[in-house]
Amino acid sequence: MGERPKTSGNSVRGARGFSRELVLVVCFLSLIALLGATAFVSRMYHKRVHTLADQWFEQGETDYNAGDAKKALIDYRNALVFSPSNKVFQFHLASALAANGQLPEARAYLLPLLSDSPGSGEINLALARIAAHQSKMQDAMLYYNSAIYGEWPDQPIEMRWNVRRELCEFLLSRGASSQAEPALVALADNTPDDDIDKQKAAGKLLLAGQLWNRALDEYRSVLAKNRNDADALEGAGTAAYNLGYYSQAVNFLGRLPRDRSADPKISTLLETSRLVEASDPFLEGLSIRDKARRTVDALNVAETRAHACMGAGSASSPAGAPHSELGDLLATAQQAGTDWSVTNLIREPDRINTAMDLVFRIENAAEGPCGEPTGEDRALWLIGRSVGNNHP
After folding, report:
1. What is the C-alpha to C-alpha distance for residues 352 and 346, in angstroms, rounded to an integer?
2. Residue 322 sits in the same domain as residue 181
3. Comparing 143-157, 322-336, 373-387, which segment has the lowest mean pLDDT?
4. Do both 191 and 50 map to the same domain?
5. Which residues contact 4 (CB under 8 A, 6 or more apart)?
6. pLDDT of residue 6
7. 10 is a domain residue
8. What are phi and psi of 120, to 5 degrees?
9. How far is Cα 133 from Cα 128, in angstroms, rounded to an integer?
10. Which residues of 184-336 form beta strands (DSSP E)?
């Protein structure tokens, strides 16, 4: 047999294929390329997903701001499909749900968000509004106060003032005067002195809450900057009237433009204030003669009111019924007769207080059976209510 031809090792590897090392290198490089491609595809996928989420969210914002909460709901839900854990998207979906009247579902989204961020002013305010719509007074107050003292990333002072104002409006709309009073005082205390619009807004709410002194202070501050501001003049005049400061009421309301003073409510306040000024015998600076004359005029007005009231009552009530007190007071006035003439009152001015006390008692007694007085009688009735007050 012939000899088998000899071959070198390299020739054998070449015949059989690549070396093991080369194969490993190729496989490694292929794996790196595959991983890179996978990462690239993954990045592109996530980028596309985020792009779609952002696009749906922006569309939701457009629809919501256009007043279409129902369409915004679909947009926000679609955004959450691509980014389900996005808290911003969740909050805006909750806002759209609330705007669409789906309050329980909105609250269900907001409570977990509040759990993650208990100090968020924005989330607390959203929950406060839901509670307010559901007439849950205690919950609304809790969330409103948490929003006031919560965190606001942008314009915190402005936002807190706005929330205070909203809380006051909510409480007043529910007739919760006792709860509204501290909220109104806090609003006034936090109203900047250099912001006329905010001062007038605070003053209007203080009037609604019948905090006359604080309202008058707020409007006076506005008038110190612009003495002809019509809103401030009307507000200050209304507050002064209710405080019994009728001279100030005449001053403020009398300076209103004609179109504002022609309003029936304002014209009534102004006319009554002027009648009080013309009828009050206790005004400072009056002579004894003027005080005596006003007292006699007041007695005549009160007696006329008593006669008319008793006459009206006798036609519809049993004899002697609810008018016995008024009849006794009228008899007392008539018995005084000439003792309370202008001349005698000038001679004995101490009797002016006694005579006016009787006038006030007659007007008060007539109010029950015949209703609140008008005109000069109302002026006397108001003077009686304000006796003892200090007139600045």
Report:
1. 9
2. no
3. 322-336
4. yes
5. none
6. 52
7. no
8. -70, 120
9. 9
10. none
Neighbouring residues of 329: CB distance < 8 A, sequence distance ≥ 6 = 306, 358, 361, 362, 365
Residue for token digits 């008060």? 364
CA 30/CA 18 separation, integer angstroms: 16
Which of 197, 213, 229 represents a domain boundary (last residue)? 213
Across-strand partners of 241? Answer: none
**What's the CATH number where 50 sits?**
1.25.40.10
Check whether residue 157 and residue 303 sit in a common domain.
Answer: no
Query: What residue type is 49 in one-letter code?
Result: V
Q: Is residue 32 part of a domain?
A: no
**Structural domain tally of the chain?**
2
Domain that holds residue 207: 44-213
Within a domain: 123: yes
pLDDT at 121 over 50: yes
pLDDT at residue 9 greater than cutoff 60: no
Please identify, among 213, 239, 261, the residue that sits at the C-terminal boundary of a domain. 213
pLDDT above 90 (res 233) = yes
280 φ/ψ angles, rounded to the nearest 5 degrees: -75, 115
Has residue 257 been placed in a domain? Answer: no
**Who has greater pLDDT, 330 or 311?**
330
Give me the phi and psi of 117, to 5 degrees please: -135, 75
Structure tokens at 328: 């006794």
Mean residue pLDDT across the chain: 87
Same domain as 293, residue 208: no
Is residue 361's pLDDT more than 70?
yes
Residue 113: both structure tokens together = 């968000």
Q: Which helix (H) or strand (E) holds 73?
A: helix 69-82
CA distances for 95 relative to 83, 99, 109, 372, angstroms: 18, 6, 9, 49
Question: Token pair for residue 44?
Answer: 């592109």
Residues 207 and 294 in one domain: no
d(CA 159, CA 349): 60
